[in-house]
Amino acid sequence: DSTLLWGGRFEGGMDELMVIFNESLPFDKVLYKADITGSLAYAKALQQKGLLNENELEQILFGLKEVLNEWETGKFVIKQAVDEDIHTANERRLCELIGAEIGGKLHTGRSRNEQIATDLRLWLRDQLKDVTKALEDALKVCAVKAKENIDHLMPGYTHLQRAQPLRFSHWLLAHATYLLHDLERLQELQHRVNSLTLGVGALAGNPFRLDREFLRKELEFETIYPNSVAAVADRDFVAETLQWASLTMIHLSRLAEDLIIYSSAEYGFVKLADAYSTGSSLMPQKKNPDSLELVRGKAGRVLGQMTGFLATLKSLPSAYNKDLQESVEPLLDSVKTVTHCIKISTGVIATLKIFPAKMRAALTVDMLATDVAEYLVKKGVPFRETHHIAGALVKLAEDKDTSIDKLSLEEMKKISPAFAEDITKVFDFEESVERRSSEGGTGRSSVERQLELLQQKLGNF
Ligand code: ARG
């Protein structure tokens, strides 16, 4: 079948379903620009080695730009059952536009195996710049929100049980810390994406000694991928991106979960803006945090794409195998999903309404039991003992249906003679928080230090 690029040795046609099963154009067409960018550079490299003359190069460059233009203006007409993937589609159209005599020279020494690897890297490199910007914006929004609300205290929870008082800012910056690490990981993995895999042939290398350093410069890659067999089958950059996306999604899902809980009436600490909420078709009073639920839910989707693709990659023999085509869809979808989720989460936080009085009202004096123990430590009682004494105080208050700050000094002294008048100073949430101002703690100066670190990393916000 001579209409197919690889049809030379074939007599019989393909099974109807096999045609659809095999074609990747429905999803890899988004790579049209990367594919043409690679071809423009490749044509120039061919001309350098005398494989195209000046006129042929000019025609090919002109034709490729025409094809690009058709994609960009929505005029590209896909030929069903012929355009198998983005590479064949672009080449077929190029040959129609400038004639197969010249157009047919573009693929000299080149394989689609190196093309898809190169296209994915070019495409992803651009996408990751957008993701980086989105993540930086998310961090800035967290920092601004934290700065504005540095005065407000809320209960900190472990096991979802009230634990110790925290600054709201400290809670928010906990999530920002995870996202900052995601940003760092993203910056690291981009170096491995940014490597030239063009000019390696199907698996054994380019037979015309094309200047790969020239290709690297043309396509602005950081490095030249050093092994042709590895180059055509390396989807580690896909795996790494999916792993990165999974972890980032997990972090966003944890932030989402906290906010979903905190926005329920039982807590009432925060309220989502209408822009990020939806209503119920049945219950008129409802305002649901669908934005955050979708973020939480989509974490499962990305995690699935990551594990699914790793399973595909596992045990593949060396060099190119068609299984590798299965890298494209999870990559495209995960990158889109994580980008949307970062942007949505950023919007939710930027527009989040905070209710400091509600947070404050949720603080209960028993959350200062640890502070009571620490008070006794300062009086010279060993910590193990103080923990017991403070526990006994909580128990007594519970039995008397009151709170620990309402017990009389006499009652306290019965439990431990170390209690003195100054115990009353312990029952103060602000003081409790401020005692924890060593680096990493919830005290104001520590929160300010965290904001400084973010500022160093992100610039002013
Ligand atoms: N469309 C393929 C992919 O996404 C690239 C084509 C290579 N195909 C081949 N039969 N060698 O991986």
From TrEMBL:
<dbReference type="InterPro" id="IPR024083">
    <property type="entry name" value="Fumarase/histidase_N"/>
</dbReference>
<dbReference type="InterPro" id="IPR008948">
    <property type="entry name" value="L-Aspartase-like"/>
</dbReference>
<keyword id="KW-0456">Lyase</keyword>
<dbReference type="Pfam" id="PF14698">
    <property type="entry name" value="ASL_C2"/>
</dbReference>
<dbReference type="InterPro" id="IPR029419">
    <property type="entry name" value="Arg_succ_lyase_C"/>
</dbReference>
<dbReference type="GO" id="GO:0042450">
    <property type="term" value="P:L-arginine biosynthetic process via ornithine"/>
</dbReference>
<feature type="domain" description="Argininosuccinate lyase C-terminal">
    <location>
        <begin position="367"/>
        <end position="434"/>
    </location>
</feature>
<protein>
    <recommendedName>
        <fullName>Argininosuccinate lyase</fullName>
        <ecNumber>4.3.2.1</ecNumber>
    </recommendedName>
</protein>
<dbReference type="InterPro" id="IPR022761">
    <property type="entry name" value="Fumarate_lyase_N"/>
</dbReference>
<dbReference type="InterPro" id="IPR020557">
    <property type="entry name" value="Fumarate_lyase_CS"/>
</dbReference>
<dbReference type="Pfam" id="PF00206">
    <property type="entry name" value="Lyase_1"/>
</dbReference>
<dbReference type="GO" id="GO:0004056">
    <property type="term" value="F:argininosuccinate lyase activity"/>
</dbReference>
<dbReference type="InterPro" id="IPR000362">
    <property type="entry name" value="Fumarate_lyase_fam"/>
</dbReference>
<comment type="pathway">
    <text>Amino-acid biosynthesis; L-arginine biosynthesis; L-arginine from L-ornithine and carbamoyl phosphate: step 3/3.</text>
</comment>
<comment type="similarity">
    <text>Belongs to the lyase 1 family. Argininosuccinate lyase subfamily.</text>
</comment>
<dbReference type="InterPro" id="IPR009049">
    <property type="entry name" value="Argininosuccinate_lyase"/>
</dbReference>
<dbReference type="GO" id="GO:0005829">
    <property type="term" value="C:cytosol"/>
</dbReference>
<feature type="domain" description="Fumarate lyase N-terminal">
    <location>
        <begin position="8"/>
        <end position="304"/>
    </location>
</feature>
